[in-house]
Amino acid sequence: MNNNIKYRLEFTKTDKMIYIGHLDLLKFFQRIIKRAKLPIGYSWGYNPHQLITFALPLPLGMSGLGEIADIQLTRRVECDEIKNMLNSVLPSGISILKASEMDFHDTGCAAAVAWADYSISLNKKFDDIRSTVDSIMEKEEINIEKVGKKKTRTVDIRSLIRYISVDNGGDVTVLNCNIAAGSQGNLKPDVLLKYIYSSMDEEFDITKTDIVRKTLYTQEKGVLVPLCQEERSI
C-alpha cells in the first residue's frame, strides 16, 4: 500500500536556468531534493526513481514564472517547511513560490494541465497590431499547416486560443495570451506568433522575442483554475 503524501510545487525558472533542458531539470531537482533532505518517495521495481513529475516541459531558453511539479514524500511535512528547505539549497534562477498538499487521488499535474498564460515581448512596437489581433479573435477557424515527421496536415488552432491582449504602452509591443497547453490540446506560442506576424506581412524571428510562461491552469467545468493553489485542508 502506498502511504506517501502528495505535494504540488510552484516554482520559477529564470536567468541562466532557462538554458537547462527538461531532462537536466529533472536530474537537477532530484539532486536538490536529496540535498534538502526531504523524505522523497521512490518507485518500486529494479530501477527505483524519485516520485517527481513536471506539468509541462518548458522550451529551452524560455522563462517560467509559475512552473509546476508534483512530488511524493514518505511522511507529512509542513508546506512552508518544504518551500524553505528547497529554497535554502536552490541556486539563483529557480525559486519555490509555494507548496500545497494534495489528496493522493487528485489528477497529476501532467494530466491536469490544460491552459497557460504567456507574456510575449516582440522585437519592436507594432502600431497596427491591435486590429490584427481583433481580426484573429473574430475568426471561427484558423487553419495552419503542421509539419510532422511523415506528413504535413492542416490544423485549426482557433479553439486553442482563449484570448490575446495587446500592450503598446512601452517601447515594444507586448502580447498577453492564454492558449491551450497539455495532452488534450497544445499550441506553442511561436506557432501563434508566426501566424500573427504573417497576418501583418512581417518577418518573424523568434530570437528577437522574449516569451515568458506565467501561469499553468487546469479546467474544471469550463472554469480555469491555477494548478497550484493556496494551502488547503486534506
Could you explain how this protein is built, in words?
The chain is α+β, with helices and mostly antiparallel strands. It has 2 domains: 5-112, Alpha-Beta Plaits (2-Layer Sandwich), CATH 3.30.70; 115-223, 2-Layer Sandwich (Alpha-Beta Plaits), CATH 3.30.70. The protein has 5 helices and 11 strands. The strands form 2 sheets. Strands 1, 2, 3, 4, 5, 8, 9, 10 and 11 form a 9-stranded mixed sheet that branches. Strands 6-7 form a two-stranded antiparallel sheet. The longest helix has 15 residues, at 22-36. The model has no long low-confidence stretch (mean pLDDT 93).
The CATH architecture of the largest domain can be named as 2-Layer Sandwich
Give the integer mean of the pLDDT values: 93
The count of strands amounts to: 11
CATH topology of the largest domain: Alpha-Beta Plaits
CATH class label of the largest domain: Alpha Beta
The shape is elongated
How many helices does DSSP assign?
5
- Quick one: biggest sheet? 9 strands, mixed
Low-confidence stretches: none
Task: Indicate the radius of gyration in whole angstroms.
Answer: 20 Å
Q: Write the H/E string, N to C.
A: EHEEHEHEHEEEEHEE
> In angstroms, what separates the terminal alpha carbons?
19 Å
Helix-residue proportion? 10-25%
Oligomeric grouping of the chains: single chain
The percent range for strand residues is: 25-35%
